Amino acid sequence: MQTSALPTFFAHITQQLGEVPDEVRRLFHGRGRCWPGLEQLTCDWLQGQLVVSLFKAVDEDFSAQLIAGLEQFAQSDIWLQRNGTAILLQHRYANGAPSQVVVGELDSRPVVIESGLKYQLDLGRNQNMGLFLDMRLGRDWVKAHAQDANVLNLFSYTCGFSVAAIAGGADQVINIDMAKSSLAKGRDNHQLNEHNLAQVKFWGHDIFKSWGKITKSGPYDLIIIDPPSFQKGSFALTKDYQKILRRLPKLLSENGVVLACVNSPAVTCDFLIDGMKEQAPELLFQYRLENPPEYKDIDEQASLKALVFSR
What we know:
- There is one protein chain.
- The protein is of the alpha/beta class.
- The chain is built from ten helices and 16 strands.
- The strands form four sheets. A seven-stranded mixed beta sheet has the order 10-9-8-11-14-16-15, with helices on both faces. A five-stranded mixed beta sheet has the order 1-2-3-4-5, with helices on one face. The protein has a two-stranded antiparallel ribbon with strand order 6-7.
- The model has no long low-confidence stretch (mean pLDDT 95).
- Pfam families: Methyltrans_SAM (PF10672).
- Keywords: Methyltransferase, rRNA processing, S-adenosyl-L-methionine, Transferase.
- InterPro entries: SAM-dep_methyl-trfase, SAM-dependent_MTases_sf.
């Protein structure tokens, strides 16, 4: 990380804040390695609040100039025009991802809007805030393909895909995640959007111990797989993803579609394409969803991969 590159960072977020809609958005994605000297820095706009994240420890000079620049940014015309209220600096590299409020008074539980849908975030207490912004176009795709569908949402986290599916006219969504606290937040997200909770199920189960129950509620017209790269004691990407793929033919309806995702720079699209050929050869790769333009990466195979398969 280079202190001399910080003016580029501030110029870019100034430009982006003037252009983004009144929705939640990433303003700066240094992790795409398109910004030399700023590879471990990101910045998200949460409709009034700015979350700046460092993914690697920096020297005192970089830290001091970053904080001074953020304080100055909070006096800028664009900050005032967009009704900015607070800036949070998160140290993602440190244990517990500690955060410090640099400007203003933080609203730690803001409700934000993405593609017209509401989501409750949780700032300053966890590494992740409750919505992965790089999956915006994935949620848009689900909304566009969920009409009258029976949907299975594996590794559902806070149910962003589920919210999009119900908004898109799904008949039912079954969300499965081991973290019941995340599912509770997912229930809140549906309630924020005034959805009929009778259409949504929240199962706090270990997927690999629940195939019988999952199968009984099928077949599914749309299956979404969006696991973490690694979750201690429950999921390891290269070992466990194939166990899910081999189950798909029995879970999927005749004209069903699978959205399979992976967000690890350690594997390419071939990890999913070849895995599907081996484990469920009757499901064919159709296309890869584009990532939001603000998530540009010097190597697209290192960025989020969301692939569509069907019979």
